[in-house]
Specification:
alpha+beta, 48% helix, binds zinc ion, ion transport, BTB domain-containing protein, K_chnl_volt-dep_Kv3
Length: 194
């Protein structure tokens, strides 16, 4: 089992005074559900999309944002929800990690966006499962190389980049110049006048 350690979470406000009910009767909700049981089921609102889970599911990973009292910063008493202004598509995979203990990399997601969400929730990418880790590493390396290429291009000498900009300008205006040449030189009226 990998530890989901987030080395640098900001200090929290401390745990809520309310005691956490021990061993709630899971997934046995009825109309007569006791308040204690209701308390253990929490709503995470991620940019308007609501996710429900059990408190003890999140607390399996106490070193992460959701598993620690850090999440209280995001609690809104009026709605009794935790609100996160984050990407709900990626969050689905993050929440699945708490449920299953396995973190997957959704191929369709941008690697940078995915990394950002993981960092926000205090989850280290090293715990990504074997099924996805190679893909994740490859995508990350490709992205790093692409960023490096861009940085190299930005570092060309100033005269080069000015020249390139002028060249681009020439191509932007070329159609216009070409049109003017046609209208002044090749029109029969102009030919007659000259
Ligand atoms: Zn996977």
């Amino acid at each position: 089992i990998h530890p989901a350690a987030a080395p640098e979470l900001p200090p929290g406000r401390g745990r809520p005074a309310r005691p956490i009910p021990s061993a709630p009767p899971r997934r046995a909700a009825t109309a007569l559900a006791a308040p204690l049981q209701m308390d253990s089921l929490i709503v995470l609102n991620v940019s308007g999309i609501q996710f429900q889970t059990w408190l003890d599911t999140l607390e399996r990973y106490p070193d992460t944002l959701l598993g620690s009292s850090e999440r209280d910063f995001f609690y809104h008493p009026e709605t009794q929800q935790y609100f996160f202004d984050r990407d709900p598509d990626i969050f689905r995979h993050i929440l699945n990690f708490y449920r299953t203990g396995k973190l997957h990399y959704p191929r369709q997601e941008c690697i940078s966006a995915y990394d950002e969400e993981l960092a926000f929730f205090g989850i280290i990418p090293e715990i990504i499962g074997d099924c996805c880790y190679e893909e994740y590493k490859d995508r990350r390396r490709e992205n790093a190389e692409r960023l490096q290429d861009d940085a190299d291009q930005d570092n060309v000498p100033e005269t080069d980049s000015v020249f390139r900009r002028l060249t681009n300008l020439k191509w932007q205006f070329f159609p216009v110049l070409n049109f003017e040449q046609h209208s002044t030189i090749y029109e029969p009226e102009n030919l007659l006048i000259h």
